[in-house]
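Example 3.2
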Amino acid sequence: FNHRGKKDDAVNVIAEHRHLFPSEPSLAKVYANYLWAVDQKDEAIGTLSELFSRKPRFDDDPQGRIELTGLYVTYASIRAVEKKEELKAAKRYGEINRAELMDQNDAIKRDMIHIFGVGWKLFAVVRSKGVSALSRASRQNVATALVQLGNIAIRLNKHHEAIEICEFGISYTSGLYPETFRAKREYVSRLMVRDGIRKGDGRNYYQA
């Protein structure tokens, strides 16, 4: 199922049978990954959201919840930022009126606030458990999720939280991730200097 046509086939096959296993985390993970691969991004995010709404059990895979939460945060963050940029483009080219702009902007912000809440809880769990206690798959998903969570924090003007995420990533992730977090931390620091943001400053720069 590595080629695009076969990925489409995989999506169709799973869609036909997943109702038989609505609360099976491993199936939801595979299905969400294939949906994302064939550019059905909202459906991929919806699949993971639906799974968590069913309160699935992870008895056979204690770290499965961490891994799937990381996947959700990654996908949902990327899509929210995409929607934000699409909205900016629509505004720039006069494709949307002010009322629609405000409604969509508010909807995206609500999504980002929700994503940040989920991601921040994941971050707390990971800090409590320690990265070394996670499986390889969980570490990969967590690192990717924290990169995207940092992006959401920046969009929501949560600069101090973004710095905290980045410093954790620098210290506890491996491969190319520490450099990614280091560059993001420097970017956030520049934003804070530029905007004169101090600890406890509640200004919101979330603008379309």
